[in-house]
Amino acid sequence: MDKTTTGWLSGFLGVLIFSGSLPATRVAVADFDPVFLTAARGTIAGLIALALLVALRERRPGRDDLVSLAIVSLGVVVGFPLLTAIALQHMTSAHSIVFIGLLPLATAIFGVLRGGERPRPAFWAFSCLGSALVVGFAISQGVSAAPLGDALMLAAIIVCGLGYAEGGRLSRKLGGWQVISWALVLSLPVMALVALLTSPATLAGIGGPAWIGLAYVSLFSMLIGFVFWYRGLALGGIAAVGQLQLLQPFFGLALAALLLHEEVNAAMIVVTVAIVACVAGARKFAR
C-alpha cells in the first residue's frame, strides 16, 4: 500500500476507536465528577505512555517541540475531554455525537493554519456542507433545550480540531504514538494532582458501567486511538484524513442505541447519512 492509503486506513481505525468515547463518557459521568474523570483518564493514560517511552528509550522531543506538545495537551488531553464530560451532563450522547460532524471542518481549518495544507475550493464546499447539516440538525432539535451543553460541545470541537491538526503536523517529525505519549507525559503532573484533589470521597456508589467507561476513555480514547489517528493524519494529510471524522457520528449513534438504549430518531439517521456522503467529495478535492 502507498503512504496515502496507509494513512487513510490508520485514520479509519482511529475514528472507529474514538466513536465509543462519548457513549463511554456519558456512562462514566453518571457516577464520576467530570473534572475527576478528565484528570483520571489523563493520569492513567499518562502513566502508561511514560512507561512506554522509558521502556523503548525514546529520544526526548526538542525544545522547539514543547509549544506544539503543549497545544496538543491543552486540546485533546484536557480541553476536549473536560468540555465534553461537562456537556454530557446536559444532553444525551446521541445528541452530542452529532456535533462531531463539525470536527472535520475544524481540523481542516487548523490544518491550513498550522500544517500549511492547501485543499482545493471544492473540498471546502463539501466540508462546509457536512458542517451545515450538523448545525441545522442541532437547531431543528431545539438548542434551547440544552444551550449550555451545545455551547460546550462547540467549544470542545474547536480545541479538539486544533489539537488534532497540531498533533498531525508534529507526528511527521516525531511519530504518531510518540506525540500523544509526550503530550500525556507533559500534562501528567497536573492531571495527577487534580485527580487526587477531586477523587470521590468513597467508591461505594460507583457502579460497574462507570468503571468500564473510565477504562475505555483512559486506554482507548486517550491513548490507543491517537496512535492510529495521528499516524493517519501524518501520512494521509490533516485536512483529507480529517474528513473520516464524518463517519464517527454513524458509529457513535449505533453504539448509543445498542449500549445505552438511547433513542436514535429518523432525523439523526438522515443527517448522519448525508454528512457521511460528503466524505467522498471532500476526499477527492483534498489536494
Keywords summarizing the entry:
mainly alpha; single chain; globular; 13 helices; 287 residues
How does the overall form come out from the CA principal axes? globular
How many DSSP helices?
13
Largest sheet: none
Rg from alpha-carbon coordinates: 18 Å
InterPro entries: AA-Vitamin_Transporters, EamA_dom, EmrE-like
Subcellular location: Membrane
Pfam families: EamA
Domain EamA: 7-130, 148-279
Describe this structure in words.
- By secondary structure, this protein is an all-alpha fold.
- It has one domain.
- The chain is 77% helix and 0% strand.
- Helix 3 packs across helix 10 and helix 6 crosses helix 8.
- The longest helix has 29 residues.
- The protein is globular and about 55 Å long.
- Keywords: Membrane, Transmembrane, Transmembrane helix.
- Belongs to the EamA transporter family.
- It is found in: Membrane.
- One of its GO terms (cellular component) is membrane.
- It is a multi-pass membrane protein.
Short account of what is shown:
This protein has 287 residues and is mainly alpha-helical.
List the helices and strands and how they pair.
Elements (H helix, E strand, L loop, with lengths): L2 H16 L2 H8 L5 H22 L10 H22 L5 H6 L4 H13 L5 H20 L6 H28 L1 H22 L10 H29 L1 H5 L5 H12 L6 H19 L3
Helix pairs in contact: 1-10, 2-10, 3-4, 3-9, 3-10, 4-8, 4-9, 6-8, 7-13, 8-9, 8-10, 9-10
